[in-house]
């Protein structure tokens, strides 16, 4: 039934490559099927003004797509002179998701600046960004600990994200582009390793969805995120 | 327990004033407690390029806050030269919520341009905007029908929105600013008159939330939205 | 002769509502006929760099129109990414007019930030903004005095503004939109309570105007401003 | 009494050089004392959208200052990415002043685009711009007539401008920078060759001005503008 | 002597991977040592206005760096709202270099839009971009021919680029970052397969360079570009 | 053969006028044939952040063209809201060229801000800007020495620039617009008084150029720059 022949509750193959580039403190390539995102975590010795007084640190995220990461070329945001509403929405989401599992007070007066850049898009770029960025942040934190810059990890739990949706009447896990552009309901879910919800963003693209459908989608998301967190753990061991 | 002395499942008083200004085809002032938003719906005889080919119409929304609608003055976005990520996120949400109940094909080659401007903010401005804007759109549609410009209403159902959250451990309905700025979880819910979900956006501000908490919040939201839709109906009869 | 049936030297009904919103130190709704402007005065504990050295304070003003305050929808300046030349001209005028009657040295190192937002436009929005903003500034100053933050009022005199013009060959007071868009000469006059001129801005829209016409217009403006200042005084007593 | 030793009613020396640069249809250098402005009038075969329907033409103006035309360097507006409010105010004034004496219907579907660029500033740059630009527009119109592109001149009258002000209590004509930055009242006056007023913009910089002072200033302006128009006529004969 | 232990006339290892991403008509990853750039060529069915009249096509290029492609994080240009002067200079250079070997008339009314995005920077990103982009353009042209959209290849010759410079007094080929940031003279050379110069851009960073040094640098560049073009040919065969 | 009847190795007449305007510390009008550029050098008592730590000074340049300095009107960059890529490329070149002969450490914590504004364009505006700006910087340095603000001149050598190109198959010196817009190869060369190269920027507009052509062009450039430096010396004596 699914264009990709997957089962309704089947994730796309996930691949997480650490140290994908050499400069960043954390540098991860995450591949979820054909969606590929470079996630870097940079440690900066400064914090934004609104954090200054707290004495603690900050974590922020930016997101972008290479112009031809998409099926037809998307205008370069740097050339247009502004980030789209969609881009801002996504980068705010990534930042909130990661901050939910990081104890900023333990970072010291530093910012972990996450950049998620989509090299190839095939649906689910924002959720892949969150899942990959968590590993990059983890590596940046290890870098801080290895240098003795912080004593204790500020990371409280794992966090990962996945999209779920209702495609041709059936709740499915991990939408690819073919599904995403034709589904009735699209929901992005962010969860922690201990199973708590950090974000649930469901949108009816076609007809409204019912409480029952919502429950089915959340069940799928929980399953998918468990598997994604397993993949993160495997990558961090590797 | 609540700063406003309300019951956990109690909405703030809602007041919807139609024809609040004289120029717009639909012009509503909605007041939810101390939150006051002017919602206008303007009928424009043009559609954006991506709609042109469809032959149908479009509905879009913009959102703004008067600089001193807030406790401390917020910079004027027109003076800063751009809309914040928050503003763009909200106006995209309002547009999606209203389009979910409007059959754009029946609008003809027209745009209904919704403007939601917050005169006074006390929490819940985005949900108040949706609830008020629906009434403004309804009035604009009546204006089109009265002039014989369209034969049939493109409005398929009512739509309204409310925020819910977990404040001091208790799920509560319709957060005001005092609650919103101190809650653990904040969820905005958009539903139709027939009880379908259009948007669910839940965010853990502090610790993650459980499936059980989510269910409690959705129950509150359903109750609140039923009451808000009743208020819309009363206003449209009045 | 006038579309509104008014006498040539007759103002539109003026209504000044104080404390129109709850957050600002001064918050006024001024209505001049169908023109309605929310004027707030915010007290900020900072001054712009060019004032820093003086030790005194500053007063500045911003102006905006809600997109559908006008007969046809005007683009939202925040969405377009810049303020129009007209907006900047108006907000500079409002700022100069108010500074003419405020002794900035007596404000201390503070800025009174005035915002004039037009809710409904029917001609004369810039002059209504000045007249209403004066009352908002007065309330903000009273707020400062009441809290013991300044000892003495920096307000030296009242200030108000009105438009005058030549409509169908006749000098008339307080142009509404129907007159404004068809008049030959349009003049905005700002005067103090003691009858001094702060600004005179006359523009020939059609044929040039004579010295005699100018004198007739100034006579009307003096009469109108006397009445507007009386309305300000009544509002401040009320 | 005046820093320049001039009489109160004495203009600075005026010099108008036509064909100052070789590309523009009209290209004038105007020097009013040490203020020097290059004024060009370019004939473009297009009109802005709002004029399209009229079948006639348009005249618009832009204004700029070279960064070091001023005593201390002013930021380059192109580098800052926007024109200041002052710049926009001035270029709108120049455009209105010139349109007041040009019958746009007789231009055909063309725009006369005026550019006024200040090479050296010593007060009165906006009024010098208007006086010089009129001569440039006159030359551009002659160019159109010489090529048989229009049959009849659309220019109805001469137009020129001057500043007047109250300096150390005395009304004076044609303020230079030393006076302008220390005067109580500053007024820019635009008049036609037949003595009609096109613009009067008076501002009290210090204390408000009286009706009597205004009359004295207008008398000075009338005298000055008569002399400036004589200089325009002499230049156009030369 | 060189930080990388290379001979003065030795290129870094070059690797060119075609079909690196799946959406673009040409999609190449070029690696010159640690410098890695994704070069895509997108075929668009439109041309910019200034090309419209020619009946032929256009080729344009854009360039960007991922924020953490560099040793310390560089601000994201999309977030800052504009491209730097450096970026614009580079993308103009890439476009000119490629257009020098493409007969635009043979493209038909199409644009080949090249995007060069630096994934990891270690010196020579602009020259690597040109060398890689040529292969991407070649693939896009093959795509056009394969679909019968054009009959004949518009590509007249190969083109590649390399940097040369004087490092510690010695002319060297293909500067990496360690050399580039400490060299006296830096020169970027673009040449065709037949050995003609397309661009020579030499800059003395420290002391001026002599004619003799220039000749030595050009000799190195000729050698390097011959090898790079051999690598392009090998990749296109592969 | 040349449109201007000049010999292939003949410069256009050069005229350098110092003290062209009165405010700047260095203010030069340079005329190369019909190309006229105002070059000012302003001394500012501040340095950009990246220079702060060095204790030394900085020199930067900005470039602009009056809208009608060109044959057809060019849009005003200040009105469009950004500088073109060409403008940025030119102003970066001017800055680099001048910094090559100035010992910034000897400037003290000051910036010399150069502005080159083209009054009339006829080819070679960027090279004329460099040649003229050097004289303006020299005057600004003399101003600093005369006031005792620096003890010793930071100027190490003269610097000037010229364009050369291949026009109808013949290498020619100092291209004017008629040649520049029809030449095969265009090269801008910046050299010091002692004959070292600071910048060489050659571009094949049509077919690629050979090593032999490059040598012929560099010979012409050396001759031209010797003459331009002689003109600078004469001007500085005058």
TrEMBL record, chains A, B, C, D, E, F:
State the CDD domains in the record. RNase_PH_bact (cd11362)
What are its E.C. numbers? 2.7.7.56
What SUPFAM superfamilies does the record tag this protein with? Ribonuclease PH domain 2-like, Ribosomal protein S5 domain 2-like
Q: Which Pfam families match?
A: RNase_PH, RNase_PH_C
| Catalysis performed (reactions) | tRNA(n+1) + phosphate = tRNA(n) + a ribonucleoside 5'-diphosphate
Query: Which keywords fit this entry according to its UniProt record?
Result: Nucleotidyltransferase, RNA-binding, rRNA processing, Transferase, tRNA processing, tRNA-binding
Give the signal peptide, or none: none
Q: Which residues form the Exoribonuclease phosphorolytic domain?
A: 10-140, 157-224
Q: Where does phosphate bind?
A: 86, 124-126
UniProt subunit comment: Homohexameric ring arranged as a trimer of dimers.
Q: Which NCBIfam families does this one have? A: RNasePH
Q: What is this protein called?
A: Ribonuclease PH
This chain's source organism reads: Thiobacter aerophilum
């Amino acid at each position: 039934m699914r264009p990709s022949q997957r089962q309704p509750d089947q994730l796309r193959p996930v691949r997480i490559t650490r140290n994908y580039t050499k400069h960043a403190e954390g540098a991860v390539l995450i591949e979820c099927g054909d969606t590929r995102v470079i996630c870097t975590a940079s440690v900066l010795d400064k914090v934004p003004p609104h954090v200054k007084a707290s004495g603690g640190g900050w974590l922020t995220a930016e997101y972008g797509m290479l112009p031809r990461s998409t099926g037809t070329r998307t205008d370069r945001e740097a050339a247009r002179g502004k980030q789209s509403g969609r881009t801002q929405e996504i980068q705010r989401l990534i930042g909130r998701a990661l901050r939910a599992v990081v104890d900023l007070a333990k970072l010291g007066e530093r910012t972990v600046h996450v950049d998620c850049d989509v090299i190839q898009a095939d649906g689910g770029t924002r959720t892949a960004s969150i899942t990959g960025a968590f590993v990059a942040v983890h590596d940046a934190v290890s870098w801080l600990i290895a240098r003795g810059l912080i004593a204790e990890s500020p990371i409280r739990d794992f966090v990962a994200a996945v999209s779920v949706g209702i495609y041709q009447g059936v709740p499915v896990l991990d939408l690819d582009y073919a599904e995403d552009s034709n589904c009735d309901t699209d929901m992005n879910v962010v969860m922690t390793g201990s199973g708590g919800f950090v974000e649930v963003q469901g949108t009816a693209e076609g007809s409204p969805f019912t409480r029952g459908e919502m429950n089915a989608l959340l069940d799928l998301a929980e399953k998918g995120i468990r598997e994604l967190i397993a993949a993160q753990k495997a990558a961090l061991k590797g």
